[in-house]
Specification:
The complex is a heterodimer. Helix content of chain A is 37%, strand content 26%. Chain A is an alpha/beta fold. Chain A has a domain of 147 residues: P-loop containing nucleotide triphosphate hydrolases (Rossmann fold, 3-Layer(aba) Sandwich). In chain B, α3 packs parallel to α6, α3 packs antiparallel against α9 and α5 packs across α6. The chains are: A alpha/beta, B mainly alpha.
């Protein structure tokens, strides 16, 4: 069953076409990677799914419901983690997570927060001020926030950005663990091709607001006659051709 | 139906933000106390030099300062709560969570009530000790005055949020400026009749003018100014409805223009 169904979505800001006629289906338990250069339209797309930006045309259905009409209902079963947002820095980690557990109206919020602190191996950080955490610790706290409501749709916007390879590897393993145990539909953006290869079932290359290539990582590498995704990325980024 | 759990969680967050920021707490009390002391002593001085020709003037002024502060704190409760989310880059987390805007505003209204309550207690005590001014002289009218000024503070707070959402960080200073834009029309320290004709029309279209006229009437002849309180309340209901519509309209507009994410991340 399709958890996320995007049909012919477009978004223009004045004369600039940020997203141009994109259609995506993501099934339960599937992880779809969104790749593209900065400004390709990935974050705009994510923001439209979260109802933060209204599309110019097209439709977004989550759990079979239109986001424009059932936003709150959808957001209760959805969550996200983005580098573009942070939890208040002068509030302790535990309090921040507890507050969001209550915003998502979780049953037994304290129990849930402790469970996630343990899962993400950050129990020792619970009394620390969120603003004093390292980038890796912050990412794990943000991931904990994203998992509070056991989301059926999880949007991860560059979750490993600015992390060192060790922490990035831990975060990837954690996401893979979540995929196996909780089976959410995941939409994942990253500039780290290793992330994409390890985590995603399918990949969509977005360039200038359009999908330029879609398929498994192996299919895409074969189609572009490249050995790694980095080279495919560069090829697409430097191409002004029509979608492939 | 707004959820009490969600409102209380948002409120708890704002309280934590204040409790853990001593500068914010300091600022909460510093300016109103300074204003009360400076203007209170200036009036005392003028009164002493005027040989008692300013009877009750000091009470008008101190009453005005304390009540005006309630409007300002209430507006700040709403506007600064929103700005805290902008400054901490938390706005996206809130707006992409299942939080109704009525719950979000409800929590910031509660912040306004707390801010007003805390500063009112401190100011009332100082006024009593320094100038012998008893805020409770207003008796039950006090509730009407406070309620009306807080409601209008909420209206101005909502307008502040809308302007920041629409015009971005450059409009942040409006969060402090907006109450002072209406202050000349609010007739805080003088009768509405002091104003030029065209300003009087504007003044009578806003609830604070009725509250401060009512306050002076109450202090002058010890009568209960219910007529003023009711007129202010009626206007407040209209203004709140308009502010709610304006907020909803602004949200739709900023979602279309992508400004919500811009103000949250820039």
């Amino acid at each position: 069953m399709s958890i996320l169904s995007i049909k012919h979505i477009a978004k223009s800001f004045g004369t600039f076409r940020a997203v141009d006629d994109i259609s995506i289906e993501v099934a339960a338990g599937e992880t779809v990677g969104l790749l593209g250069v900065n400004g390709a339209g990935k974050t705009t797309l994510m923001n439209m799914i979260l109802g933060l930006i209204t599309p110019t045309s097209g439709s977004i259905n989550v759990f079979g419901k239109d986001i424009a009409k059932h936003r709150l209902e959808i957001l209760r079963r959805t969550n996200f983690c983005t580098t573009y947002a942070a939890l208040p820095g002068n509030v302790p980690v535990f309090s921040n997570l507890l507050i969001f557990a209550k915003l998502y109206q979780i049953d037994q919020p304290k129990k849930k927060v402790y469970e996630l602190l343990e899962l993400l191996e950050i129990t020792s950080l619970k009394d620390k001020l969120t603003g004093t955490l390292s980038a890796g610790e912050s990412t794990r706290v943000n991931l904990a926030k994203a998992l509070l409501n056991d989301p059926e749709l999880l949007l991860l916007d560059e979750p490993t950005a600015s992390l060192d390879p060790d922490i990035a590897d831990k975060v990837r393993k954690l996401i893979i663990h979540l995929q196996k145990t909780r089976k959410p539909a995941v939409l994942y953006t990253s500039h780290n091709m290793r992330d994409i290869e390890e985590v995603c079932d399918r990949v969509l290359f977005i360039h200038q607001g359009k999908i330029h290539a879609a398929g498994t990582t192996a299919e895409i590498k074969e189609r572009f006659s490249e050995e790694n995704l980095d080279d495919v990325f560069i090829k697409i980024a430097r191409s002004d051709k029509q979608p492939i | 139906m707004p959820s009490f759990t969600v409102i209380s969680a948002l409120l708890y967050r704002y309280i934590l933000l204040y409790a853990r920021n001593r500068i914010r707490l300091f600022e909460l009390f510093f300016w109103p106390i300074v204003q009360l002391l400076v203007w209170g002593f200036v009036t005392s001085y003028l009164q002493s030099k005027g040989g008692g020709s300013f009877p009750r003037f000091i009470t008008f002024l101190i009453g005005g300062i304390i009540l005006w502060d309630s409007l300002f704190r209430s507006q700040q409760g709403v506007a600064i709560s929103f700005l805290e989310d902008v400054w901490t880059r938390n706005l996206i987390n809130i707006f992409a969570a299942p939080v109704r805007m009525s719950e979000y505003l409800g929590a910031s209204f509660c912040v306004g009530i707390l801010r007003v309550g805390l500063t009112a207690i401190v100011l009332a005590l100082i006024a009593l000790l320094a100038y012998g001014f008893n805020l409770f002289e207003f008796k039950f009218s006090l509730i009407g005055f406070y309620a009306n000024l807080m409601l209008f503070g909420w209206v101005l707070g909502i307008v502040s949020i809308c302007l920041i959402l629409r015009f971005g960080h450059s409009a942040e200073s409006l969060a402090w400026a907006i109450p002072f834009m209406i202050q000349p029309f609010a007739a805080v320290f003088y009768d509405v009749s002091t104003l030029p004709g065209w300003m009087q029309h504007i003044a009578w279209a806003m609830p604070p003018a009725y509250v401060f006229e009512g306050m002076r009437k109450c202090l002058a002849d010890d009568s209960a100014p219910w007529e003023y309180v009711i007129k202010a309340a009626t206007l407040n209901v209209c203004y709140l409805a308009i502010a709610g519509w304006f907020f909803a309209r602004t949200l739709t507009n900023v979602r279309e223009k992508g400004l919500l994410t811009k103000v949250s991340t820039s």
